[in-house]
User: Fold Cyclic nucleotide-binding domain-containing protein from Sphenostylis stenocarpa.
Amino acid sequence: MSKTSLWHNWKNNTVATACFNEDGFGDGYGIFVKAVNLTAQHDVFKRYIYSSFWGFQQISTLTGNLVPSYYVPEVIFTKAILGSGLLLFALLIGNIQNILQALGRRKLEMSLRRRDVEQWMSHRGLEDDLRRRVRQAERYNWAATRGVNEEMLLENLPEDLQRDIRRHLFTYIKKVQIFALLDEHILDAICERLRPKTYIKGSKILYDGGLVEKMVFIVRGKLESVGEDGIRAPLYEGSVCGEELMTWCLEHPLASKGGRKSRIPRQKLVSNRTVCCLTNVEAFSLRAADLEEVTGLFARFFRSPRVLGAISDAPFCENLLCSAPVMKKLPKEQSFS
Assistant:
């Protein structure tokens, strides 16, 4: 009898092929009932895919659909899968719990902050319009910072890391014509004094007749500058408000008086433009006092011909990245010391 005839007779023998049926010798195979027919597949890709599916299924169901035989290694293997599934499930529950606790903690902090603000507004008797604007500013400030105090976070980092982070955050200050000429150590001194600020829609950063007491670097949002003549100029990400304050500090250096440096109280920089926020705005501000300190510390560098030439050529009328307000002189009785 040929091999072909033997193979044909064996396939037609119900007793011989019963091992491939789950109703045949299934009880003897235990958890490997599904694997018996898999061995008859010649496609390696099918074997791999089904084996992976079987493994994920047993871990996810904690071997809930497996009935092992009395074979000890098979029982140990089933227990190993069960233990692995329980461990992964416990890790999943733990991570979900940590996430929920973190969200709850943030929500609690925000609720406490909101309650304190409401109590303060009630104690001070603020009007409804002011209360609405305070609530809006608090919501936007929380959304912008995620409740994280950036200044405190940076203070706890090493000095070199602080410097590198500030250089990354404030690369846009080199867009200002004068700042583009400064050395790295002077820029680092300026970056150390920049403070994050948020403004809500409708807020006025500068207004006509008000003192220019800070430079504002726009990070996100849209603004509009309106001059006395009614000319409107848009401001956007990367723009700067109050850039002429730099020129003012250089043209009016601190004078020594009684061993201390002080500015002669004769005139102040006043804006003849109104800069209003069209959307919520994220920005960094540099106060006039900090700018004066930097120009005083590096006065020798700022008096160099290159910097003085840039100051004299600064096209304020042509918009130095912003429609910058120009300088006025306050009447003598309105001057500040």
